[in-house]
Structure formats: C-alpha cells, structure tokens
Amino acid sequence: MLTNKVDICGVNTSKLPLLTNQQMRELFKKAKAGDEHSREMLIQGNLRLVLSVIQRFNNRGEYVDDLFQVGCIGLIKAIDNFDLEQNVKFSTYAVPMIIGEIRRHLRDNNPIRVSRSLRDIAYKALQVRDSLTNKNSREPSINEIADELSIPREEIVFALDAIQEPISLFEPIYHDGGDPIFVMDQINDEKNQDLNWLEGIAIREAMRKLSDREKLILTLRFFEGRTQMEVAEEIGISQAQVSRLEKAALNHMRKYM
C-alpha cells in the first residue's frame, strides 16, 4: 500500500480523514439543518471518493489538480442532494455524480469541436433511424438512412461518429430486477490474470466462506478474466444471474476482508 505523501490542490492525500457510517449519518443530519461545519467535515471525509474516481481519467491528458477540483464540485452536489431516508450508501450515490461532473468538464473542454453542420446531419440521421425503426419494426441500415436523407453514406457515418462521446466502464447498459450490468462486465480484462490487484488482501480466507458456485464465478471472472456472458454460457445460467451472484459473493467477501 502506498504511504507516501501526495499533494493535490494543496491537500495531503495521505492524511485525509475516514468517517464511519454513524459519523456520516450524524454529520448529514447536522448539515441538513444548516450546520456549515458539519458540511465541511462531510466534504473532507469523502475526498477519497474523488481521488478514486479521477484515477479512471488518468489517460485523458488532463491535470490531476483540475480533475480533482471538478470532482469536488460533484462531491459537494452529492452531499447537498443526498437523502438519508433512501436505503442507499452515500458512495453509491456520490460516485456517479462525481463521474458525471468530470465527464461534463472533459466534454466542454474537448479541443476537438464538432461543426454545427455535422451535428445537424447526425441528429437528422437519428430521427430518420427512429422513424424507420417504428415503420419497419427493425433498425435500418446506414444505406437506408442515407437514401432517406439523400446524403452520401460516408457523411452519415462520419457525422454519427463525430457526436459519440466516451462512456465510463461503469455505465449501466442493462437492468434486471434492479441489478445493473455495466460496460466493464462485457470486457475481457486480461490484465487481471496476473492477480496484482489481489496483493495484500486476505482473499483466500474470504473465498472459503463462499459456495462452490460463487467460487467458480469469481474464479472465472477475476482470475481468468472472463466476461459475464462467457461465464453464463459455461455454467448454464443467464448473464443477469451471473451479475447478481457475482455482486452477492463480493459483498459477502467484504465482511471477511
């Protein structure tokens, strides 16, 4: 574990406070009542969330200090809007808001600007796509969209590509009974095969607490780098069930780690 001092925006990240769940609840109650000191303590006590999020954007060529400040804006918005009555962990609520704030910053400061004419073509193409889908009960091809708009196929492809924005690996793409499947669940991550991320974690003891099926799913997913779809095909259950069992197993392991 890294213990060296790292300063971001003048904040010594090695000395950031950690708050217990009970402390969080008490501070939220006081902050909602207008106590600015409690609000400030909540911000300081959750800066580690911002740090964990900005690590996902390391390869964007942005200054870490800038990303940290933008992430703090997302954190503050999450603190001000969090509802204690909802049965949701604050981190679960805050992380998407922090990510969203950073993504907006990156989008607004992207040096690559899409021209208005390209955007117009792309939006028209999307409208035609929806119209043809409703009409023919299937998604149309690029050629069909191009014929409908009387625009060369290449221009349609270029325009649609131009308006695409990068998405987070943690973007939910499917929901089944409240259990989301994320983009990262569809990606075969071969880097996990070397098990570097398991160093220093008492995972073997935690694995012993799991059922045989849970052990098999986690082994295939995190030791062999399989996707959830590949795991589902191998053990003969749905991808949604794999996702649900995987999350339950990980939550169970955290009690012993």
In short, what is this structure?
The protein has helices spanning 21-32, 36-45, 47-54, 64-81, 90-108, 116-136, 142-149, 153-162, 203-207, 212-223, 228-235, 239-254, and strands at 7-8, 11-12, 172-176, 179-182. By secondary structure, it is mainly α. It is extended, with a radius of gyration of 23 Å.
Structural account:
With 257 residues, the chain is mostly helical. 57% of the residues lie in helices and 5% in strands. It is built from 12 helices and 4 strands; from the N terminus they run ββααααααααββαααα. Strands 1-2 form a two-stranded antiparallel sheet. Strands 3-4 form a two-stranded antiparallel ribbon. Helix 1 packs antiparallel against helix 2 and helix 6 crosses helix 8. The N terminus is likely disordered.
Topology, pairings included?
Layout: E1 7-8, E2 11-12, H1 21-32, H2 36-45, H3 47-54, H4 64-81, H5 90-108, H6 116-136, H7 142-149, H8 153-162, E3 172-176, E4 179-182, H9 203-207, H10 212-223, H11 228-235, H12 239-254
Antiparallel strand pairs: 1-2, 3-4
Helix pairs in contact: 1-2, 3-4, 3-5, 4-5, 6-7, 6-8, 10-12, 11-12
Radius of gyration: 23 Å
What is the arithmetic mean of pLDDT?
A: 78
The shape, in one word, is extended
Q: List low-confidence stretches.
A: 1-6, 192-201
Given helix and strand content, the structural type is mainly alpha
Strand order of the largest sheet: 1-2
Note the gap between the termini: 15 Å
Give me the strand/helix succession: EEHHHHHHHHEEHHHH
Q: What's the helix count?
A: 12
Q: Note the main sheet.
A: 2 strands, antiparallel
Helix content: 55-70%
Number of DSSP strand runs: 4
DSSP strand content: 5-15%
